[in-house]
Request: fold
Amino acid sequence: MRFDTSPAPHIVAGYSVPRVMFQVLLALLPAGIVHLVLFGPGLLLQLAVACVTALLCEALALHWRGRDTTPALKDGSVLVTACLLALSIPPLLPWWLTLFGTALAVLLGKHVFGGLGQNPFNPAMVGYAMMLVSFPAEMTRWPVPLDTPGAGSWAELARLSMASFYGAGADPRFDGYTGATALDSIRSGLDLRYTLPELLGRGEIGGPLGARGFAWLNLAALAGGLYLLARRLVRWHIPVAVLAGLLVPAFLAHALDPGGHLPASMQAFSGATMLAAFFIATDPVSAATSDRGRLWYGAGIGLVTWVIRTWGGYPDGFAFAVLLLNLAVPLIDRYTVPRIYGRDA
Amino acid sequence: MPARPEFPAGLALDAHKQQATGLPIVELAPPAQVVLALDQGSGSTAQPVVAVGARVAIGTLVARAEDATAAAIHAPIAGIVIAIESRAAAAEGGHGVCIVIEGDGTATLDASIRPVPDLGTLDPAELVHRLRDAGIAGLGGAAFPTATKLAAARASGAQLLLLNGAECEPWICCDDLLMRSSAAEVVLGARILQHALGAARCVIAVEDDKPEAIAALRAALDGWDEAALSVAVVPAVYPQGAERQLVTAVTGSEVPSGSLPAQAGVLCQNVATAAAVARWARDGAPTMARIVTVTGSGVARPCNVRALLGTPLAALIDAAGGYQGKPLRLIAGGSMTGRALASDEVGLTKAMNCILVATSEDLGGSRGRREMPCIRCGDCAAVCPAGLLPQMLHRATLADDLQSMRRLGAHDCIDCGLCDYVCPSQIPLASRFRAARQTLRIADESARRANAAKASYERREQRQRAAAAAEQLALDTVRSRAGQDREAAAGRVGGTD
Reply:
């Protein structure tokens, strides 16, 4: 009898890139639902634009590069980029801005470097950072979350989302429904010499857990992140290091100056903390590669985020922190090669 | 949750062992014809000492070990050598020179086969020599000559004999069955090897998923001094049975990179090799048979078979109830490191501990999967038992960056295949690293040749310079002498003025 031959090993664990990407999308679901409930249906519009743009750009880039388009489109990685971007941006962006950001993320963030596996920067954060520096007003205008006392209704948010999507969101009749995020308001409040208890005491910015709206969003992202950890799709090093890098300095600063610095709990449940710690910083392609390297990488992201949130000019610092640490990855990788069995330390 | 291994990492794989451990060992009748590959699995060939047409008896030496990495081969049946030619074999390229013996149905023993009566008083060095003559080689899968390892370990003063009964690879269970049924033989072999090595201590290491084997060994060891001979139970984590990893699991220390366990004071031998030594000691018979696991979803009745070397694999598969279902791949060895064979006409070798007849279900859909780009997920690094970063090594391999390949441990890779197994991008990492080691060997070899050529060129230059200098010196001497003569002559002339 004749048989085919093939080099060892002859068995595989059956993990695959599409399966990993699908699981990541599944883990984003709770955050997506909370987002829809508290911030209105704008997310759906953003998701639609981002996903369609991402798939088109991916196909176009692959075509230009003379590559086969089908397997790359099926691997799901570009959809993860699109969904992460859509979850990071305010749900009130006009369609063309989301299109612009997503196209930049896929083309400049990913394909100019050689596509899947080759990008030194996190593509979603490349898109986000470009949008933030180019259109700061649009990028900091969020709907007032529905768990804020005196907020409007979901139906009103739906009308606002539609109007904004077509570029008419600045209409004065929507004035009461939009505003800066909690982190943003607190930073500008502190700049105006208010103290933290004064700012939080009004109950509009902070709820029992953290920032209004964002606290629930962070909890949902945390749940999804724990799912990824449990399924071993993400290993613990980066999320734990990001949270430690952010929360340890936050805790110390708040202990020293409670009036001028947010408590660690507020830092943990505001802005994009959990999304960044579990879903964005953990993008393996642009992260450090060894376990020890990933601890440094994550801690660096957390620390830079805290610095930007505390003294920087932007409300949340995750995008810049991730991109900055992406830059440091070759250096981190160089100094964190683990000791090989049988070799001297 | 499996216990953590002592070495950097590993993985608990689906063992698939119970398929073949349920039945007792099947004793296979001598086949009508044996096909003995000159390379029994160590990658080095023995030299035939018989010609076509020669009559051989059971135990007649048919091929001699010319170098230290091959083991002698003996005829397992009596009969006539009908061919010495290239046949299907478990070797690179699927073919290798084999000695084919047609049996005459008799059980004539070669005159050289006699029990070894003076075993206890035999000088250890002489014992090593006799083991070499008996063709004793590693039966755990490498078929490396035991005598060569023993000699190296003796030279480095190794004080520990480590018998490997870990059998960590999926599907394989021949050592398990051997330990269950012939624990006394394993222990006797251990004593003999210990004597040959002059080692104070012997440890038999068995994975904790073989309770029957552990109990049998403990019973056989009853009464022995625990300090001299003991059983160590190690966690069932692949690749626990890899030499370096097992040394670390048992002794707690690592084998330095670039050196062999023997050089680090430990001699590793498979439990089946120890049993082969015991059989040789008892009746003087060289290694002519082995136990092999015949398993996989592609055979009807998976079991372990004791068969003569050279028995065609088809006969072994018949002993296991024949093919069933859709057998896709015939693997000599286990599913992680075994070699896929193109034909079942290949003869059993000393290295074959398992014949895995795999169906697509056993292969887990590994066929025809498309390689995707590395996403640096690091799953490979998380399981690497050598502590490598396979993702970085792979990048260096693709870039043909020899220096990085060395730095990132291309030579420290033990070829266990775990990185390949877990890779979500289906990158054939193990094959790439094998190719990388080959590239490095070629580069080393050409560097060595270039250096040798340079040295020889420089020697020649030096010789020529020396010759030229000598010539110049001779010329100068002649000239100066001529000058003196002229001066003298002139003096004389002057003197006459």
